[in-house]
Structures are given as C-alpha cells and as structure tokens.
Amino acid sequence: MGENGPYEGLELPRKTLSLICRALAVNAARWPDDARDVYHEEYEILGHGRHARAKEEVCKSFGYGVLNPELMLHSPDSGVTMVGFGSIKKDQAQIFRLPLPESMSGDRVPRSMRTTIAWFSPINPTRAQYRLASMEAVSAYGPDDIEDKHWGLSLKGDGPDANMIKRGTVWSKRMIHNTQRVPTFEEGAEIPICVQCRDVANGGLNEDEEIEFAIAVTLEIEAEIQYDIYDEVKQKVRLQLQRGV
Questions:
Q1: Which of 48, 127, 192, 213 could join 119 via S-S bond, C-beta 3.0 to 4.6 A?
Q2: Please, what is the angle between helix 51-62 and helix 33-46, to 10°?
Q3: pLDDT digit string (tens) for 84-127?
C-alpha cells in the first residue's frame, strides 16, 4: 500500500490495468441529487411497491452515477478501498477476504460497503445473448458457502435493482447500514467476498476459458469517528502478506 497504490512497482499487464481502472471507476460513481429526485418523482407516479421500476428509470439516465475522480484514486476520509484481480472459469468461485476493523464492532454508526467487479466476457456474435459470462459477488460463510445476505455488518441493499446490476460486464452493488442492528464481531473477523462466474448462454461458455476480472471494495463509515478504519485494515493486510496468507 504505497503512496502510488497497492501495486506500486509491479509491471501489471495492460489488460489487468484496464480492468482495475473500470472497477475503480464504477466503484467511485455516485448517484447525484438529481438522480434521487428522479427516483422519488417516478416512485410517486408509478405507485407503492414499484421501487425496481423507479430505479430502472433513474438508471436510464444516470447508470451507476457520476464518476468521482477523488474516490477513484483514494479511499474515503472515513473508509478504505481495496483492489484485487484474478481469473476464473465457468461455475467456479474465488474468495477475497476483507478484514473487519475491530473498532467498528458494537458501534452504532452509519456504514456502507460497495463491491464492484469488472471483467472481459468471451462473446459469440451469432447469439442474441452474445456475452457468454456473468459474474457477481456474495458474502459467504462456512464450509458450504452459505450466503450471508447482511454481509456480516447488518447491511441492506441500496441503489440499482438486483436485475439491473447483472447486465453488461460490470457488477456493482452498494449495501448500507440497517439502523435496527449493530454488528458485533471478534478480533480477526473477515468478510469472505465470493466472486462467482456463470454461463449465461446456455452452454455457450467454454469450461476451460480463463476469464480475467478485477474487484474493488469500499468499506466506509458515513459519520465522524475517533478511529481510523483505513489504518486498521492496512495493518491487517500487511500481516496477512507477511504470513503469506
């Protein structure tokens, strides 16, 4: 984690750099106030229970939001952004472990977590569904990888609807705090972020094809706090690297 980024001094391939750039760009995008206004207007028109349709109308104009270059280059003031990359095959999964800052345990503060995956999908131009591979991230615990829908931090979904974020070759999801619950966890706790790859072309994706991807994750406390989760996570990652974990 040098001043020039987590991969300072490494000669990464251009393809990897482009994937990291895409992941960070979308991860740093935010819906402006105008988008929120459109959402509330559409919801009033469409009626109660039409959240997904209202969000889809917003996405037509704003997508994932407006790029914030500062958040693309740096972690938030009260947060931390982690970046990773790898390759994966059809019906396989990789797990990235996000260390949890111990200071957050038991603290009733507004918090959010944004996870973004970018990949280059193999294509078949003769198919209507020409992109063959889709990816998503889930928080999984235990030997059977049972999904934890609250991501270990009592979080709930926000932003674009689940069906919208499955389109294209970028998957990005923002989770926000559930005010009714306060997360508690022990020293050394982590969130296992499971990146999954699936065939969306009914057998069109070759099971031996290696699909490269990049992932960006931002954990943020959206309030003034007396502790620094960036330093806490940084120290935990350094210990993992020293141990070869």
A1: 213
A2: 140
A3: 999 999 999 999 999 999 988 888 888 999 999 999 998 888 87
Report field, pTM of the whole predicted structure over 0.70: yes
Residue 180, classed as helix, strand or coil, is: coil
- The structural domains of the chain, with segments of one domain joined by +, span 75-243
Pick the closest to residue 87 from 130, 129, 50, 119 (CA basis): 119
**For residue 23, what pLDDT is reported?**
96
CA 116 to CA 71: how far, in whole Å?
Answer: 13
Contact 110, 222 (CB under 8 A): yes
Q: How far is CA 84 from CA 90, 116, 205, in A?
A: 19, 11, 24
Which residues are CB-neighbours of 59 under 8 A, at least 6 positions away?
160, 164
